[in-house]
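#random but structural
TW: two for the price of one
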Amino acid sequence: MDTMDDDLYRDITDFAHDTPSWFQHLAEVWTELGLLLFGVLFIVAWWRARRGDPRALAIAVLAPLATAVAYVCSELLKSVIDEERPCRAVSGALKPLVECPAYGDWSFPSNHSTIAGAAAVGLALAWPRIAALTVPMAVLMAFSRVFVGVHYPHDVAVGLVLGAILAFVVVRITTRPVARVGQAMRGSSNGLVKWFAGPGPALAPSPATDPARTNSPTMSFRRYDAHQHPGHDAHRHDSQHHDPQHHDPQWHNPQHHDPQHHDSRRH
């Protein structure tokens, strides 16, 4: 019994055969040309980020790396699920516009769609203004895989979501350590390394890593100069050698006490 996905696949492939031949060729080319265009955009995003801060450079470098991670995960899923291609499995469907992949090149999920979804999100994180271009590109690229007859609709839908999620997670998790590497590269003595990292500004140190920026109290000591305050120094010296006779004129030594002078009324 045919499933709803099979019916949708037939409807799309029937529509593809009803389109003009030039449009069919454009769809065939776009399935591969889209990958090349994403690669060019990765290079442009990296070149722009070379003059940005290390965090911007890190995201631009991570965008293609995250796309590669998404592709590997897609291949692993393919080898586990082993879904046959619709161009062989769906009965009554028209011949695909391109050659049906060989047996063993499984259908779920779509590698092209996974790459497209990851590239679109990675580029949007590195270059937000370009999201208006990359997201429609990814959707059209995913649709073209059903249009030419080599994938089910659910293959491309899952591929888009899988690639987008993986790219977002990989970039977010690894941006900080990669930014630190980029900052170190900009201070490298190797010319090629410095060229790759670009002439952008260094990452501003945080108070936790830069003790000079903390507001901890400090103590300062000033050397006392007796020549600048002679009066004060003389007074201090005199107080250290205090003579009680000069402090209190009525002070007397009890060892020399004369009782005759102590109380004259007794005589």
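TW: number two ↓
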Amino acid sequence: MERFEDLLRKNEVKINQSTAMICLSELFIIAVIFALDVYGVFTVYSYATEVIWKIALAFLLCFPTILVKLLRAEGGWVKYAIMTCSVLASGLSYIIFNAQALLLFAFPTALVTIFYNRALSIYTCVFSVAAMLGSYLVASYLLLPPMFRNRFGFHYVMVDTAIPQAIYYLCFAVLAQVLNRQTLGVIRQFYDASRKNEMLSLEKETAEFRGRMQERERISRDIHNSVGHTITAAIFALEAAKMQRPKQPEEADEKTDRAIARMRESMDIIRNSVRMMNDQNVMDVQELEKLLTLCCRQTEQDSDIYIEADFSGLKDVSDTPMSSERVSFLYGMVQECVTNGMKHGNAHHFRLKAGVDKNDIAIEVWNDGNAPEAMPEEGFGLQHLRSYAEKAGGHFQIDAGDGFAVKLALPLENL
């Protein structure tokens, strides 16, 4: 599971698209209001009757969609551009519809409270207050005929009307922020609990894997001790029978029969042990992914680093069987690369990517550490990785430049 902040940042593109579509929906509602006004269902009282006002409003509500859908813009500035358009559109709506559109100023604030971060919320609130005061000045003073303007006066329009409305708006904005912070707090608690459960699950699976490896070693020792002793005793019995046969054939046959029986017992032990080892020795790509995830999270907890993991490329081969020996090697490879990045490159950000390249399973570990001026001499750990990959029919590569990357690929059919 990724860090909470990174999850929010990755969702930003979808959020931008959602808010852009909401702006289009607002444009559709405004178009319906204009249509009802044209057909005389009701009358919109406004002195901003020039077409340029309506064109500007339509552009502001269409621009977010153009930005995120057509131009596919990304980056932190995009959400500020969208909210700027939304606030300006609310201000223009007030000018065009006069006091009938005052509630539109709550629209961008509601959006930013639901979707975006605190900094953007503060920006939207401050900008909304400025747009509200400016809209009051234009709609309720500058566009009025002189006789009405002189009757109301600047003080009445701004001090007695605009500023109280701005205060009402700020009360709404503060309430929305309080609710937003409480909601985000609940979401953060849920995220932390999910992350803790994931770590416990991964640790449990790792303990099971280590248990299988220990069981495998135990079986190997049993084969060596029990079967080795049996075969040695049988060899001695056969040699004794061979020497005894000329003088005591019956006793020699008896010893030979006992030796044969012991050998058959040994064969049964070997078959059972091999069957157990095979059962314990087969894993799959999905288990590798879980172990690598655990490696990343445990390393993050123990060190001041962040490891960004991407296993989406393994989705189609998640059920592919792998030997536990191969899983252990790849797990050790990631540990080696992360340790080297922290130790030699002073790296703080790592990117682990695993996928399928043609018929190979490919793993890349990149870090933002200090890249050496010349390609470094491979130590024992990297030499072991290269040797293993080449013997398995794969390849091993080191790239230095924009950070430091280690890439390893192994054939899928030999897993």
